[in-house]
Design goal:
The protein is α+β, with helices and mostly antiparallel strands. It contains 8 helices and 11 strands. Helices cover 22% and strands 26% of the residues. Helix 7 runs antiparallel to helix 8.
Amino acid sequence: MTMKRQAAELGRIRTGYSRPNPKPNGRPIPVKSKTFILTSHSREYIAAAAELYGGEIEQWTPQGQPVAQWRVVTEATELRAILPAGDPLDQANEKWTAGGCERRCDGVTEKLSGRPCICLAQYGDDWHERKPEEVCRPTSRVGVFLPDLPDLGVWRLETKSYYAADALAGGLDTVLQATGGRGLLPVRMWIEQRKAVRRGKTKQFQVIVVVPSLPKLRHALSGPISTAAALDPASLDRPAIEAAPAERPDYLAEARACRTADDVIGVWHKARAAGHGSDELRDDLKAIAEDISKGIDPRTGEVGDQDDDGDDELGPDDEGVYDVEVLGEGDEPVGDEPPAAPARSSWPTAAQPGSGARR
């Protein structure tokens, strides 16, 4: 319950490197890089970074460490990354020696000893202008996801610049104010060269700027976004894709396949329920229903059952027998009156069959 959960660290993002000092006993000389540098214990990660951001893969041993790593000085002046949920920024004034971290201070209290800020007590408010070996250095660390590189884990960005610490904290505070740290947020990071004049002297320095990478400011200030939007921020500004309309059934073909006028009425009710009940369709279905009531096949236009030669007269079968109906006693003889027409099917009041021509 007291352990701090965090993603695995796959590598580090740096903004500088050191070159050998020409003096035999001199310390390595720090060099500011105009592009991002990625380092890792895994050659696979650095190879993927070199392919994505440019640069040459090289083996490299960090100062004061015995284990070699891999490094690529990329050609990228800007990185697209994703901030994990929570507060990804860790800042403290730290002083390191060969034996490890000697001081870790929040500007008020030195955490390892519990004493008030030692640098402030010794050198006053401008303590950060002293030489690095004399005082703590403002150290800022932030872990980000690089979504186009392999595996799930963070790349740690670390800087020991006083000015960069201020700029980095300000940018991330704006981000956290919008999201509350409750979700992922895409960001852009770039190295920016700046200068400041202090006591008549111009000091040049570089900072890492971190801003939300979203199409509009309102997206950055409207709260957490989905994981899909974090991976593809441009989707937040795309219009929603309307669903394709459903294919309209062929109601006339259904009606012509019906055997009774009631079945045709059922087709009409189906069309109305689907929002397809036009006056034209109603008239067509009425005509088909009337044809069926009159014994006309709406598919062919033929009346009743006919032989292929069109002869309606019934003849004897092979044994000379006629297929006729014989009336027994008590049956009423067939008179000269034609049989009554079948009763009309019940259409809705607004759709009673009219005299429309069959289509």
